[in-house]
TrEMBL record:
<dbReference type="Pfam" id="PF02635">
    <property type="entry name" value="DsrE"/>
</dbReference>
<dbReference type="InterPro" id="IPR027396">
    <property type="entry name" value="DsrEFH-like"/>
</dbReference>
<dbReference type="InterPro" id="IPR003787">
    <property type="entry name" value="Sulphur_relay_DsrE/F-like"/>
</dbReference>
<protein>
    <submittedName>
        <fullName>DsrE family protein</fullName>
    </submittedName>
</protein>
Length: 122
């Protein structure tokens, strides 16, 4: 029998130009509702999702606007991690990102996975 976990890590590589980003945050919020501890690790163009103001440009009907999905996720205790080299490659610094976003390497994600977290990738 598979062990159960209350953790979920979502790896995201798609940015504001992709409907997948809205789908991922919708599912992340659903996972919080289901009682999971959810962490999202952003790489590549997904970094733009948490650049201040960047998320305001995306809405995939009938889903909620991406900005609202991200805000809800954070208010409900979801963690958002941003890949340091990906942040740097875009010329961003901590001050350019939404409050609460943590710039941290993949080791945080790997620690959750090692501790039994389920994973999704978008």
């Amino acid at each position: 029998m598979q062990p159960t976990t209350d953790k979920l890590v979502i790896l995201m590589t798609k940015g504001i130009d992709s409907e997948v980003s809205s789908v991922a945050f919708t599912l992340a919020n659903g996972a919080l509702t289901a009682g999971l501890k959810v962490s999202i690790f952003l790489t590549s163009t997904a970094i733009d999702l948490v650049r201040k103001g960047g998320q305001r440009f995306t809405q995939v009907a009938p889903l909620d606007p991406l900005a609202a999905l991200i805000e809800d996720f954070q208010k409900r205790g979801g963690a958002i991690w941003a890949c340091p080299p990906c942040v740097k490659a875009r010329g961003y610094e901590q001050a350019d990102l939404l409050d609460g976003v943590i710039i941290i390497g993949g080791s945080a994600m790997f620690a959750e996975i090692k501790d039994g977290a389920a994973t999704l990738s978008f």
